[in-house]
Design goal:
- The protein folds into 3 domains: 250 residues, Rossmann fold, CATH 3.40.50; 222 residues, Dimethylsulfoxide Reductase, domain 2 (3-Layer(aba) Sandwich), CATH 3.40.228; 125 residues, Barwin-like endoglucanases (Beta Barrel), CATH 2.40.40.
- A hairpin with an 8-residue loop joins strand 30 and strand 31.
- Helix 9 packs across helix 29, helix 15 runs antiparallel to helix 18 and helix 15 packs parallel to helix 21.
- 35% of the residues lie in helices and 16% in strands.
- It is α/β, with parallel strands linked by helices.
- Bound molecules: ligand MGD (2 copies) and molybdenum atom.
- The site of one ligand MGD has 33 residues, from helix 12, helix 20, strand 24 and strand 25.
């Protein structure tokens, strides 16, 4: 395996000229039009609109260009001049389109008309909005509410999300899975259990007051690039930044600020991570146990000199469970820790020593911790480490999950959840005069199981690309068509619109950058960022088509066509004035949303508060809880000869299933996504040549055949025993049953696979991936 000190040579740092080229390469002239530049200029500013990409903070003291390469891509993607019209659908059958790549589908541009699937001609045909609502409503009235699933991807505004959840509950179910079920659900469950608040405790200013940051499995440079600015400032201040990641991610190594003329001209780059450890995927529990072991040892030494490393006052007053955890740590040997983590004791101790010496520490993490069968333990142990020195609930400290979609955290805040206990149902009942369902609904994995078993009869997708994002895609797609009704609300065409139930609708909506004029005038919407700050967002662009409706309007359309009239539920008034929806939100959640309509324009957003930050622990014990892990490996399955841990990864040129292009600039992979990354020693052991085309087959021991073909072998710096390849192309290899226990987040970062050293299908009878990924010009 490569030594932990090895570096991979890239052409340049993250940011810099590469990021500017990254934008113009894809959008060419569109990028330079005055309207597009004007729109970008308003991005993430007070009275502007909030980026449709990630959920990073929108600071009060903003930069002139408060957007990043990927935020600009996401905005321009929505502003594209291309249109996917009824003519397009007349030319192509749905079966034909199923062979297209994700890239080619979204390249068709914005959807313009409501469409209904016509089975006889196997085509989408245009329809009337009223007609669509009428049929959807009458079907829903016939179906058992418990058999209907209302999915949402984390983009929909607080206003839309609140109404969508209300509609599902008025209709009679809590089947409200969302994209966070595949993402930071581990966070929502683990942090709730151990510190009593299911979101991060860090706020933006803490980044300016910390002495050390620990990064576990979060790829800042690609996925939250605006974070690079405070990170660069921190690095310049001398903050120790210690990273654990199997992949040497460029953005965590070096950064040139594309918004600094001096840095751009001189090519000056800032080193970001002071230590970089290429942990084995699934090895973080072992790392964290090792770090804690070092902290206990350092504390033993300090005691001999009458000092302490542990924050004893904090531990006594605020935590429970230290004894059992400490005993477990002391009983765990360095041999086990080294084996499971793939790192040396020396390196883990070096990282832990930074922790011992720092007064204020922030813990940052992403999918590298959450998407494992023992993701819960990953997150809980990270909290353990922070608790040892009172690093939660003080300025400049805390735990900071970096959330994904721009409003994924906010959706949960306003009621999108399958867990009724997270929603003030009594207030709902009073506010809207009905008896809300009290039974637990389905999350993403349960919805998939329900579709496979036939229990789910109808699926609504409020945005997103569900069939592409979930595990076991091939099995899921086959089951999909047995549903009675499928309805997708979207801006662009994607794979999920091409697998249809008996009755299927594709309904186009306005995007966040677009003007939304209703009875009372232009409407704003709002969202919540990863630091629990809530902002208004005002779209100004002319909508992509006159036939588009807003998401609020579409949800109200479903509801009016389905539910009996209720004088307390005033869909038409709400659509006419979104301020009235915010009044309803404030009534349901008064502590967090009082004065919502006024406060939403506070520069930097308004903070909705976090009890754990105040050291109020809303846990079972009333204290912050140490967790004692049962295992050192997060994978949840045994190693075996020839079995690899596959990391499914995002490139710098995609937003989830939206593929902007075929350039993973920061990893030096160009022109294709059909690659298999593997380290040179492993290549040799497996007798593989660079450029050879191979297949991956699933190795989950559950009797299900899984395979993906046509992957080109690329030597890459990775730990032994693991492979890297792109999400979503690899999703057919992920078993639905492989998910974190308590949260059911699918285990996308350690998928058990074998390499088949040819591209032949062998006994796998069907080609599982659409062909033709490999040949796109850059
Ligand atoms: N440009 C862009 N921005 C995005 C997105 C996008 O697709 N494109 N997606 C958005 C969404 S929805 C989300 S949730 C976030 C996702 O953002 P991240 O949380 O950064 O998610 P990933 O890129 O999937 O993986 C994160 C990192 O985990 C590492 N990793 C894998 N396995 C392990 C492990 O076992 N241990 C450790 N320590 N590290 C591991 C990977 O190498 C990778 O660098 O980004 C959001 N922002
Ligand atoms: N193997 C593997 N699988 C994963 C992951 C992984 O790391 N590895 N990551 C998981 C994660 S973190 C997530 S969040 C999920 C993502 O799952 P989703 O959120 O379901 O997927 P997206 O790709 O973000 O959805 C893209 C689609 O959203 C639609 N869209 C865009 N903007 C709007 C809008 O304003 N309104 C509406 N109605 N529609 C819009 C467009 O039609 C676009 O095609 O995937 C998960 N799946
Ligand atoms: Mo996500």
């Amino acid at each position: 395996m490569p030594s932990e000190e090895d570096t991979v040579h890239y052409e340049g740092p993250s940011g810099g000229w590469g990021s500017v080229r990254g934008i113009s390469r894809i959008f060419g002239k569109e990028w330079a039009t005055p309207l597009a530049t004007e729109t970008l200029f308003r991005q993430n500013k007070p009275k502007g609109f909030m980026c449709v990409s990630c959920s990073w903070a929108k600071p009060a003291n903003y930069h002139p260009f408060e957007f990043c390469e990927n935020g600009a891509k996401a905005t321009l993607w929505e502003l594209t001049t291309r249109r996917c019209t009824p003519d397009f659908f007349a030319k192509h059958t749905v079966t034909e389109l199923r062979d297209w790549t994700d890239y080619d589908l979204e390249q068709q541009g914005r959807l313009t008309h409501p469409m209904r699937y016509d089975r006889a001609s196997d085509r989408y045909v245009p329809c009337d909005w009223d007609e669509a609502f009428r049929e959807i409503g009458s079907e829903l009235r016939r179906l058992d509410p418990k058999s209907v699933v209302f999915y949402s991807s984390g983009r929909a505004s607080l206003e839309t999300s609140y109404l969508y959840a209300l509609f599902a509950r008025l209709y009679g179910c809590n089947n409200l899975p969302d994209s966070s079920n595949m993402c930071h659900e581990t966070t929502s469950v683990a942090l709730k259990k151990v510190i009593g608040a299911g979101v991060g405790t860090v706020v933006f200013d803490d980044l300016q007051n910390c002495d050390a940051m620990f990064f576990f499995g979060q790829n800042t440079g690609s996925n939250s690039p605006r974070f690079l600015h405070p990170l660069q400032e921190a690095a310049k201040r001398g903050v120790q930044i210690v990273t654990f990641n199997p992949v040497r991610e460029r953005g965590l190594e070096f950064f040139t600020n594309p918004q600094s003329p001096v840095e751009m001209l001189t090519g000056k780059e800032t080193r970001i991570s002071t230590q970089y450890h290429q942990v084995r995927p699934g090895g973080d529990i072992a790392v964290l146990m090792g770090m804690c072991k070092h902290v206990f040892t350092a504390d033993d030494d300090a005691r001999e000199h009458g000092r302490r490393v542990l924050d004893i006052d904090f531990i006594e007053q605020h935590t429970s469970g230290l004894e059992a955890f400490e005993a477990k740590v002391r009983a765990t040997s360095w041999e086990e820790i080294e084996r499971e983590s793939g790192l040396s004791r020396k390196n883990i101790e070096a990282a832990a020593q930074v922790y011992v010496e720092a007064d204020r520490v922030i813990g940052i993490y992403g999918m590298g911790l959450t998407q494992h069968m023992h993701g819960f333990e990953n997150v809980a142990l990270f909290v353990n480490l922070l608790l040892l020195k009172g690093n939660i609930g003080r300025d400049g400290t805390g735990i900071s999950p970096v959330r994904g979609h721009s409003n994924v955290q906010g959706q949960r805040t306003v009621g999108i959840t399958e867990k009724p206990e997270l929603v003030p149902l009594d207030r709902y009942a009073k506010q809207f005069g009905f008896a809300p369902p009290r039974d637990t609904g389905m999350n993403t994995v349960e919805a998939c199981e329900g579709i496979l078993s036939g229990k789910v009869r109808s699926f609504f997708g409020l945005g997103g690309n569900f069939v592409r994002a979930i595990p076991d895609r091939d099995r899921m797609e086959k089951a999909w068509t047995t549903m009675r009704l499928t309805v997708q609300v979207a801006t662009k065409l994607n794979r999920s619109h091409l697998v249809n139930g008996e009755i299927a609708y594709l309904l186009p909506c306005r995007g966040r950058t677009e003007e939304d004029v209703q009875a009372s005038g232009p409407q704003a919407v709002s969202m919540e960022d990863t630091f629990s700050c809530i902002y208004g967002s005002l779209g100004r662009r002319t909508p992509a088509s006159e036939h588009l409706k807003s998401e609020v309007d579409i949800v109200a359309g479903f509801a009016k066509a389905t539910l009996a009239p209720n004088p307390k539920v005033r869909w038409d008034d709400w659509v006419g004035d979104y301020g009235l929806i915010r009044d309803q939100i404030a009534e349901t959640y008064p502590e967090q949303f009082h004065g919502f309509n006024e406060r939403m324009w506070t520069p930097g957003g308004f903070y909705r508060g976090n009890s754990a930050r105040e050291r109020i622990w809303k846990t079972e014990s009333g204290k912050a809880e140490f967790t004692t892990p049962e295992t050192l490996s997060a994978t949840g399955w045994p190693d075996a000869p020839g079995r690899y841990r596959l990391i499914t990864m995002r490139s710098n040129d995609q937003f989830n299933t939206t593929i902007y292009g075929y350039s993973d600039r920061m990893r030096g992979i160009e022109g294709t996504r059909d690659v298999l990354l593997i380290n040179p020693q492993e290549m040799q052991r497996a007798n593989l040549q660079e450029g050879q085309v191979v297949s991956l087959v699933g190795d989950a021991e559950d009797g299900v055949e899984r395979a993906v073909f046509g992957l080109k072998v690329v030597p890459f710096s990775l730990p032994d025993g693991c492979l890297g390849a792109y999400y979503p192309e690899m999703n057919p290899l992920m078993p639905l049953s492989h998910h974190d226990g308590p949260s059911k987040t699918p285990a996308a970062k350690s998928v058990p696979v074998r390499i088949r050293a040819s591209d032949e299908r062998g006994d796998v009878t069907e080609r599982l991936e659409p062909p033709g990924h490999a040949t796109h010009p850059v």
